[in-house]
Amino acid sequence: MQEAGIRQSLTSIIPKIEAIVGREHVTTAVEDLLCYAYDATNRHCRPDAVAFPANTDEVSDILRLANEHRFFVVPRGAGTGMTGGALAVQGGLVMVMTRFSRILTIDTDNLVAEVEPGVITGHFQEVVEGKGLFYPPDPSSASYCTLGGNVAECAGGPRAVKYGVTRDYVLGLEVVLPSGEIIRTGVRTAKGVVGYDLTRLMVGSEGTLGVITKIVLRLFPFPEVVRTLSVVFSRIQDAVRTVCEIIRSGVVPRTVEYMDQAAIRCVEDYLNLGLPVDAGAMLLIEVDGSLSAVETAISDLTDICKNCGAYQVHVASSAQEAKDLWRARQAISPALFRLGPDKINEDIVVPRNRIPDMVEWIDDLRKRTGLTIVTFGHAGDGNIHFNIMLDRRDREILEKAESAVEELFRQTIALGGTISGEHGVGITKAPYIGMEIGSAELALMKRIKAVFDPNGILNPGKIF
Questions:
Q1: Which of 248, 339, 128, 182 is nearest to 142 (CA)?
Q2: pLDDT digits (tens, 9 = 90+) for 347-372
Q3: Per CATH, domain 223-422 is 3.40.462.10
Q4: What is the rounded distance in angstroms from the CA atom of residue 341 to the CA atom of residue 337?
Q5: Alpha-carbon distance 126 to 32, whole Å?
Q6: What is the pTM of this model?
Q7: Does domain 103-221 have CATH number 1.20.210.10?
Q8: How many whole angstroms separate alpha carbon 75 and alpha carbon 60?
Q9: Are the CB atoms for 349 and 429 separated by under 8 Å?
């Protein structure tokens, strides 16, 4: 094992980590460290070592060792996070959870599953769907992100407008605390209110309070019918007004996604699917339920969209056509790099009735700054993905972009929103957390962190 770059404090500990997980499951080779030095933020923080535990006892032993010798441990799933939550910003050991890859049980009587955190979200969805069941949370990275990472970040996705986010499906957890102590939280039943809700505390804690080793998830029966509509507008203002009208009408689609003109053009150039590149905006709407309920919803949605100025409402005629539309939506993030080599990606949320105000403000920001700004996202729940495409080597543009982000966050708070809907805080939003969270609340959160992790060894530098 190559140990170049290892801090002296951790170098002497490597044999002890090898004794816990096996020598073949620890690496200090520079080329391996570089592979685990980044996440989807494209920021790089090289760890001192990487370990791949396979069971709860191994995680516990590593964390006990970390407390004894005072080295940092950073839990990591697939590295798809958007705010730097899995980066070793202060060095130390990255603990990769991909060997925890088993679906342990699927209880079709009680609609409950128990899984390990390294299970790929999309794979889990396919397996439960094969049993006629449904796991709704659907982050755009579902084909490669892990359930453990979803729980750590409280991931959302397009279906959140009807079905909620990851926290709404986590019934219980097995967690290794920073001390190495193993706890089990929550229930396997439909109800349970005994004691403090430690499960909810862990969900969304971004790997700062413990390492998740098992997850108990709630499932639904698979919907009888699913239909996908694409709706095209000349003006983005009409598209976002339509979202408000849909919600106000009482119709509850399972997704209402929107793409602005820049996003449509990027994706069409990237995939060549025949998207309407001259449109001002496009909505992607999905409805599910019984056949009669879906047919009624499609009729109502068509009327609402046309009354709000849509010039095309199309219901996908086949599963492949619907899949292509979703391929377009999921390809936005990679397609945007055609507009610039670097990206600043924020995921603000505003009350749904304030989406038109937010979109109008962003359009004004684009004109005032001259920045390349692209928006898309989960319009049905007010979650707007705000992207600035740029070259970070241009210091003047980078400073202008960073100033625009701060403006964006202030406007979001002013509209009654939140600066992060599903990406978490990590390191990228930590400087802004005080805009939304008061000093007393922040102090309480820091005290909670200190109770769980008095030596500060677990995922340091995140959130606060």
A1: 128
A2: 999 999 999 999 999 999 999 999 99
A3: yes
A4: 6
A5: 31
A6: 0.94
A7: no
A8: 12
A9: no
